Amino acid sequence: MKMGMTATWDQHGVRHPLTILQIAQNQVVQIKTPQRDGYSALQIGAFDCTPKNVSKPLLFHFNSAGVPPKRVLKEFPVTPDAVLPIGSQLDVRHFVPGQYIDITGISIGKGFQGAMKRWGFSGGPATHGASLSHRSLGSTGHRKTPSRTWKNKKMHGHMGCDQVTVMNMLIYYIDPVNQLICVKGSVPGHDNNYVFLRDAVRLKAYEHNKKLGLPSPTCAPPSSPKDMELTACPPTQFKNPFTLD
């Protein structure tokens, strides 16, 4: 869940905007197997809720798995060697500071907007006969051939409320006590909106994550107070912008 935004400064005095994400009551609810379903995946439920707030089919689904009812369910594809038992807990220590992740959320709705705001069109001229057409869309159709407007033409209309995935977000802080993750940059959606996290899939970030030794399939339960300490991104992750190197 997206909680809000803050900022921090690195050892070079550079300010970095951070988005705070909370990971709470994440459990494995169902296992998808290639033999039965044709693919390998884990269904994860997050944020416990009361039984009266879920439908009867979902309530039966949770009771069959032996987990509390959840507000949100999401399926994540995994390799067969990374399958976890039903009921396994996933917390923030599943991720590592300095790791790159992809975050998916629903963007903020903007309502009905014109083509300039929605698509970044430059608009018409300010003078020289451009009467009442400074922010107009311009030509949208054709003449006799094809006598219609092509589908998916960029026009005015509803903006926002779309599923957006932001790639290669850097994990800056991890707080195991409060189950919080701070990522560098902005995340789509309002505060208190649900977002979905996965390991980065782009090649450069994927190769970087392999060098960090990520926990597989997930982290072990905490065995000492040191495991619950606040951890930050390594200082070597950031270069000094005030040098010529």
Structure description:
It is a single chain. By secondary structure, the chain is mostly beta strands. The protein is 10% helix and 32% strand. It has three helices and 13 strands, in the order E-E-E-E-H-E-E-E-E-H-E-E-E-E-H-E. The strands form three sheets. Strands 1, 2, 7, 10, 11, 12 and 13 form a seven-stranded antiparallel β-sheet that branches. A four-stranded antiparallel β-sheet has the order 5-4-3-6, covered by helices on one side. A two-stranded antiparallel ribbon has the order 8-9. The protein starts with a strand and ends in a 13-residue tail after the last strand. The mean pLDDT is 93.
Total of DSSP H or I helical runs spanning 4+ residues: 3
Order of helices and strands: EEEEHEEEEHEEEEHE
Low-pLDDT stretches are none
- Report the sheet-strand fraction: 25-35%
CA distance, first residue to last residue: 39 Å
Structural class: mainly beta
Mean pLDDT score, rounded? 93
In brief:
By secondary structure, this protein is mainly beta.
Q: What's the structural blueprint in terms of helices and strands?
A:
Elements: E1 2-9, E2 15-22, E3 26-32, E4 41-48, H1 56-65, E5 70-77, E6 89-90, E7 100-106, E8 111-113, H2 115-119, E9 157-159, E10 163-175, E11 180-184, E12 196-199, H3 203-211, E13 231-232
Antiparallel strand pairs: 1-2, 2-11, 3-4, 3-6, 4-5, 7-10, 7-12, 8-9, 10-11, 10-13
Keywords summarizing the entry:
13 strands, globular, single chain, seven-stranded antiparallel sheet, 10% helix, mainly beta, 245 residues
